[in-house]
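Example record for the data management plan.
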Amino acid sequence: MPAAAWVTLIIAALIIAITAVGLLRVIVHLSAIRANLVATTGGVQAVAQLTSTVPDRLTSVNASLKPVRDFCETV
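Corresponding structural encoding:
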């Protein structure tokens, strides 16, 4: 094989290797982002549970807070 063919193959292999390393870095970063999003979602769900509305079994409290809720919906 001529020297130009070897140089072409080496350059192509280097380009492919650099691209593969770049894609692997993207995969690693995306998996780290996914882990952070899962943790954030868990935190948001915990906050949503802690700040949920008064349960239905406390109807007298719910009835007392209805004017406040109606006012807050208009704001």
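Summary line stored alongside the record: The mean pLDDT is 89.
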